[in-house]
Amino acid sequence: MASLILLARVIHVVAGILWAGVIFVLINAVLPVGRQYATEGAERWTALIAGRVGPISGVAAVFTVLSGGYLMAVLHSNDGTWGGTVLKIGAAAAVVAFLIGVTIARPAGLKLAALAAQSADTEAHQQLTQLRRRVALSGRVVAALVAVAVLAMALFRYVDVLR
Q: What ranges in 1-121 are assigned the alpha helix state H?
């Protein structure tokens, strides 16, 4: 049992770092550069980068949520402390971030990449603008929720001590 918990914790931490890192870099570096230099062709490169790291982020998110769910069930299912509450809030934020990523950000990003590769008539330009906004907004929400989850995971052990 201890070995399984240790393995789950390692998977959770490594996958969580990868998921958070990819999301933060995409939202704060890659997408803004693509948007700023879109007229110079940077949007194509942005789509290529996002297309490469997006699936990596998705797999990392799945491993993070699954291993976190296991750890929560095994180690913290009956934790009624303030620290346990903080941990549950962080877990909820991670699950919501995952769901937004899967249901909103990923589909919009795939459509955006496909449209960006096509010719840009007026209708396509309007769709591109809407998709860019959807990707940016959903990405920011996911990044904020992942940040909440990361902070909760980092602080939950200390909440009861500081209280």
A: 2-25, 31-36, 42-75, 82-100, 106-116
